[in-house]
Amino acid sequence: MPNGIFDVPYPINEPIYDYNPGSSEKAELKKTLDDMLSKEIEIPMVIGGEDVKSGNLADCRCPHDHKHLLGQYHKGDEKYVHQAIEAA
Protein backbone atom coordinates (compact mmCIF):
# COMPACT_ATOMS: atom_id res chain seq x y z
CA MET A 1 0.00 0.00 0.00
CA PRO A 2 1.54 3.30 -1.05
CA ASN A 3 2.19 5.92 1.59
CA GLY A 4 1.38 9.17 -0.16
CA ILE A 5 -1.25 11.69 -0.98
CA PHE A 6 -2.25 11.60 -4.59
CA ASP A 7 -4.23 14.21 -6.48
CA VAL A 8 -5.38 12.42 -9.63
CA PRO A 9 -6.96 14.88 -12.06
CA TYR A 10 -10.49 14.21 -13.25
CA PRO A 11 -10.38 12.99 -16.87
CA ILE A 12 -11.80 15.37 -19.44
CA ASN A 13 -12.85 13.75 -22.69
CA GLU A 14 -13.42 15.35 -26.02
CA PRO A 15 -17.04 16.04 -26.90
CA ILE A 16 -18.98 13.16 -28.46
CA TYR A 17 -20.70 13.95 -31.74
CA ASP A 18 -23.52 12.01 -33.40
CA TYR A 19 -22.58 12.96 -36.98
CA ASN A 20 -26.27 13.02 -37.94
CA PRO A 21 -27.18 13.59 -41.59
CA GLY A 22 -26.98 17.30 -42.35
CA SER A 23 -25.07 18.15 -39.15
CA SER A 24 -22.16 20.58 -39.24
CA GLU A 25 -19.93 17.92 -37.62
CA LYS A 26 -20.59 15.48 -40.46
CA ALA A 27 -20.01 18.17 -43.10
CA GLU A 28 -16.71 19.15 -41.47
CA LEU A 29 -15.61 15.50 -41.28
CA LYS A 30 -16.41 14.91 -44.96
CA LYS A 31 -14.53 18.09 -45.92
CA THR A 32 -11.47 16.95 -43.93
CA LEU A 33 -11.57 13.46 -45.48
CA ASP A 34 -11.86 14.92 -49.01
CA ASP A 35 -8.93 17.23 -48.27
CA MET A 36 -6.80 14.33 -47.01
CA LEU A 37 -7.69 12.18 -50.03
CA SER A 38 -6.66 14.95 -52.43
CA LYS A 39 -3.05 15.08 -51.19
CA GLU A 40 -0.13 12.66 -51.27
CA ILE A 41 2.16 12.73 -48.23
CA GLU A 42 5.63 11.38 -47.42
CA ILE A 43 5.90 9.65 -44.04
CA PRO A 44 9.38 9.47 -42.47
CA MET A 45 10.48 7.11 -39.73
CA VAL A 46 10.77 8.78 -36.33
CA ILE A 47 13.85 7.64 -34.42
CA GLY A 48 14.85 9.40 -31.24
CA GLY A 49 12.38 12.19 -31.97
CA GLU A 50 13.99 12.92 -35.34
CA ASP A 51 12.49 12.43 -38.81
CA VAL A 52 14.59 9.85 -40.66
CA LYS A 53 14.26 9.25 -44.39
CA SER A 54 15.79 6.07 -45.78
CA GLY A 55 14.98 6.72 -49.43
CA ASN A 56 13.50 3.21 -49.63
CA LEU A 57 9.86 4.13 -50.22
CA ALA A 58 6.67 2.06 -50.25
CA ASP A 59 3.13 3.08 -51.09
CA CYS A 60 0.27 3.83 -48.68
CA ARG A 61 -3.08 3.09 -50.27
CA CYS A 62 -6.70 3.32 -49.17
CA PRO A 63 -7.86 -0.03 -47.76
CA HIS A 64 -11.15 0.31 -49.66
CA ASP A 65 -9.62 1.63 -52.92
CA HIS A 66 -6.19 0.17 -53.67
CA LYS A 67 -5.85 2.29 -56.80
CA HIS A 68 -5.85 5.51 -54.76
CA LEU A 69 -2.37 6.50 -53.54
CA LEU A 70 -2.41 8.36 -50.19
CA GLY A 71 1.35 8.76 -49.96
CA GLN A 72 4.61 6.94 -49.39
CA TYR A 73 6.46 5.86 -46.26
CA HIS A 74 10.17 5.25 -45.68
CA LYS A 75 11.04 1.62 -44.99
CA GLY A 76 13.74 0.77 -42.48
CA ASP A 77 16.26 -2.04 -42.41
CA GLU A 78 18.64 -3.49 -39.80
CA LYS A 79 20.64 -0.25 -39.70
CA TYR A 80 17.57 1.72 -38.60
CA VAL A 81 16.56 -0.94 -36.08
CA HIS A 82 19.93 -0.57 -34.35
CA GLN A 83 19.63 3.22 -34.55
CA ALA A 84 16.21 3.02 -32.85
CA ILE A 85 17.53 0.69 -30.15
CA GLU A 86 20.36 3.11 -29.40
CA ALA A 87 17.92 6.03 -29.29
CA ALA A 88 15.69 4.18 -26.83
What is the strand tally? Answer: 5
Tell me the major beta sheet: 3 strands, mixed
Q: Which percent bin holds the helix content?
A: 25-40%
Strand order of the largest sheet: 1-5-4
> Helices and strands: which structural class?
alpha+beta
- Specify Rg, calculated over alpha carbons: 21 Å
Q: Unreliable runs, pLDDT <50, ≥5 residues?
A: none
Number of helices: 2
Strand content: 25-35%
Could you give the distance between the termini? 31 Å
Average pLDDT score = 93
Indicate the overall shape: flat
Structure, explained:
The protein is built from two helices and five strands. It has a domain at 40-87. The protein has a three-stranded mixed sheet with strand order 1-5-4, with no helix packed on it. It is an alpha+beta fold. The mean pLDDT is 93. A hairpin with a 2-residue loop joins β2 (45-47) and β3. It has helices at residues 24-37, 78-87, and strands spanning 41-43, 45-47, 50-52, 57-62, 65-74.
Topology:
Elements: H1 24-37, E1 41-43, E2 45-47, E3 50-52, E4 57-62, E5 65-74, H2 78-87
Parallel strand pairs: 1-5
Antiparallel strand pairs: 2-3, 4-5
